[in-house]
């Protein structure tokens, strides 16, 4: 435990920690490239950052943590890299279930999970079932996730509810719409962190981030940890959220 991180932690106002933090974990490839490692070594190092950030988030009372783990566009990467990421996901999920339970963390997923292979789906189903009674941090993995496909899936589901007479088109409002998204039941993120300096959303939580505070850091994801998370929270606590008002 670094004392730098602890002194940052002391500066966090416990009464106004973000309820929901979402993170675009970017920069694994660049981290590996800098070291002349294969990109997959970057993803492996990224898993360590995930472990540290999950613990740190729970430690300061964050209730929801959504991690952008694999986008619908990421299938376009070389097949070997996709396979390596998927294997890492399954291996890590299996290995970490007991630790999640020890830390009272509930695991959930967001995205087109049906698009993952049966083995991956089974491992995720076991882990979500085994942690479902936990009452601490909700760890939400955005997997095979795309903001546009999420909106399209919601529109399709609403259209079929209208067709079968379950809902009246006049009753469609923001609240109803949000309930058809993969994230139904989750609050919108208060803070969105993106690592490795890219200033874009990359199809992440397009509907949900309408009023989210953005925090972009040049730190590459495998180098992001407890201290960087606390720094992001402190930055967030200095913002004035106006929601269109004055
Ligand atoms: C993020 O790191 C991990 C995933 C998208 C799965 P990248 O692999 O995108 O790393 P860079 O952007 O190439 O450095
Ligand atoms: C976003 O990162 C997806 C995840 C972190 C899972 P990318 O590296 O895929 O995004 P782009 O391609 O730089 O926009
Ligand atoms: Mg990237």
Model description:
The chain is an alpha/beta fold. The chain has helices at residues 3-10, 28-34, 39-59, 79-102, 118-130, 147-163, 174-179, 226-237; strands spanning 20-24, 64-71, 106-110, 138-145, 191-194, 213-216. It has a single domain (2-9, 18-146, 191-236), classed as 3-Layer(aba) Sandwich (Undecaprenyl pyrophosphate synthetase). Strands 3-4-2-1-5-6 form a six-stranded parallel sheet, sandwiched between helices. Helix 4 (79-102) packs parallel to helix 5 (118-130). The longest helix is centred in the middle third of the chain and has 24 residues, at 79-102. The chain binds 3-methylbut-3-enyl trihydrogen diphosphate (IPE) (2 copies) and magnesium ion (MG). Residues 24-26, 68-71, 74, 198, 200, 202 line the site of one 3-methylbut-3-enyl trihydrogen diphosphate.
Number of domains: 1
Q: Strand fraction band?
A: 5-15%
Overall CATH class? Alpha Beta
- What is the architecture at the second tier of CATH? 3-Layer(aba) Sandwich
SSE pattern: HEHHEHEHEHHEEH
Describe the structure in brief:
With 246 residues, this protein is of the alpha/beta class. It has 8 helices and 6 strands; from the N terminus they run αβααβαβαβααββα.
